[in-house]
Amino acid sequence: MSEAGKKILLVAACALLDQDGRILLAQRPEGKSLAGLWEFPGGKVEQGETPEETLVRELDEELGIKTKIACLAPLTFASHTYETFHLLMPLYVCRRYEGIAHGREGQALKWVKPQALRDYPMPPADEPLIPFLQDLL
Ligand SMILES: Nc1nc2c([nH]c(=O)n2[C@@H]2O[C@H](COP(=O)(O)OP(=O)(O)OP(=O)(O)O)[C@@H](O)[C@H]2O)c(=O)[nH]1
Fold first, then answer.
1. Distance, CA 54 to ligand 1 centroid (Å)?
2. Which end of the chain is more exposed for a tag (fewer CB within 10 A), N or C?
3. pLDDT of residue 3
4. Regions of the chain short of the pLDDT cut 50
């Protein structure tokens, strides 16, 4: 068991990039934990899935974006203790995909320049990821 007996939750997240080097953020809807905060698309890695498979599935379900495992490049990861679990979240970068992102679950979306990421309040786990994206882009 991890710190204070908290379970480790594995979540895969993706920085989807457009041709201008902007990153897609999605706003967590009302009623969910951390509502109103801006996050990277992705979700929990389900039993029997690899993180890459999770992302290919989630990008389609959440955004209507089709991509392939080969188009997901690992960048860094978040490791953060929340009140009820410890989040371990690999962050991938995806530049090659088909389709135009739209919030299929009613969530607001925003394409954001790397230097403007700090203007969008994100979950605490995400804060340390920002410099990696700013350095990359
Ligand atoms: N997709 C995503 N999840 C994140 C990010 N940062 C972060 O702390 N998380 C956390 O990772 C978990 C992702 O769960 P999810 O997206 O599959 O599920 P959910 O919101 O329906 O779950 P929940 O309502 O039970 O929290 C949430 O607890 C969320 O707060 C991020 O940038 N992207």
1. 13
2. N
3. 66
4. none
The whole-number pLDDT of residue 105 equals 87
Domains for the chain: give ranges and CATH numbers.
Answer: 18-134 (3.90.79.10)
The span from the CA of 125 to the CA of 97, in Å, is: 26
Amino acid at 70: A
**DSSP β-ladder status, 23-27 and 38-39:** antiparallel
As given in the structure block, the two tokens for residue 30 are: 């009302």
Residues with CB under 6 A from ligand 1: 11, 13, 32-34, 39-40, 42-44, 87, 123, 125-126
> Which ranges of the chain does DSSP label H, i.e. alpha helix?
51-58, 130-136
Asked if the interface predicted TM-score (ipTM) of this complex is over 0.90, the answer is yes
Give tens-digit pLDDT for 74-87: 999 999 999 999 99
